[in-house]
Amino acid sequence: MHCLLAASLSLGLVSGAVIPKRTGNGNVNASHNQGSNGNSKFNVQMGPRPYYLVEDMDDGPLKVKLQSCSEGPFKVSDFVFAHRGAPLQFPEHTLESYSAARRMGAGAIECDVAFTNDKQLVCRHAQCDLHTTTDILNRTELASKCTTPFTPASEGTDAEALCCTSDITQAEFKTLCGKMDGFNPNATTVEEYLDGTPYFRTDLYSSCGTVLTHNEYIDLVDGWDLKFSPELKTPEVEMPFEGYTQEQYAQDMIDAYKSASIDPSRVWAQSFLPDDIFYWIENEPEFGAQAVYLDERVDTPEGYANATASLAELAARGVQIVAPAFFALTKVDNATGAIVPSEYALAAKAAGLEIVTWSLERSGWLNEGGDYYYQYVMPVINNDGDLYTVVDVLVQQVGITHFFTDWPATLTYYASCFGL
User: Fold this and answer.
1) Were both Cys, which of 81, 166, 273, 407 would link to 361 (CB 3.0–4.6 Å)?
2) Is the pTM of this model over 0.85?
3) In 237-352, at which residue ranges do the beta strands (DSSP E only) sit?
4) Rounded distance, CA 399 to CA 396, Å?
């Protein structure tokens, strides 16, 4: 039943999407899309998931408010940042995933930017994730180029593989099929290794996702008249890579938008590396003004304390937007049991920083408190509908301006209901 529900959830979402034409060389061409959002009569669709979540909520004013919005209208919202597209059900960073995100009303779509062996930029969540997000291990010639070719599980040792974008050229990358991210550590064959999709996702749309270069992504999203949220992925190879420096990598990403005549106000460039943010602030100030520092220091208690204490210093250096994982922005008030803004959230606001956060809809079922993303509020999370309780605190009390999500419809429903 769970898989059938997941399947039905997506069928209606992509059936009406305008799919860009392919050029003769297989590249994506979105130039035929005209008008607002690429279609003057574009219909944003929710599918059943937001309705399921609302009905699963505890009774109260927020549930009543969200129920009152059940018939829309639903619209594209810049509050909604599509995290890797719509990877709850579609292979991440593929044309199909981006198309689904667009159909669900995402105002900005993310390309995680990595570089190939010939120093070209492509969309992948990590430089070295091809073995879990594509079919490269099934391509004998390309699999032989992987940093670590497939090794089967044996005598208590997990199966192993490591394939990076920097192992192959952009042309070779374009021959790959995107698949749902995941692997089976107990695999003794490549086929078993690739069969590792998490329980709360589906392989229904994973037949052969169309992987994209960074330039193709820009053309696609621009053709849809949406915003861009590219992330410069931290290299997993030693830099400089064959003479290619981190600074050139950061500059190349920005140059792609300048070459396409994209207004900097449409671009939220992201990085986990502070030096990338500082580089853009100093060398590309129009893009640096909207650069997003992805703050992973919060992942440990000591790091959380240090991050909170240093936010004013970041602001003094010109950083204007911070983005920790959303768990770091809330906590439980021990006296009332309510979810309230965290110390980090309060410090960010006091420093005058804008707050963006990530990533909703990566946690599966919430009936047992959730996972990494709910760690500070886990004691009061006991049903899937509690997702909207957390979202409401993040919006109404913390004051986040944009939210990355693996399933845009969930946030588009809320954003349309509250006029975001």
Assistant:
1) 407
2) yes
3) 270-271, 292-294, 321-323, 330-332, 339-341
4) 6
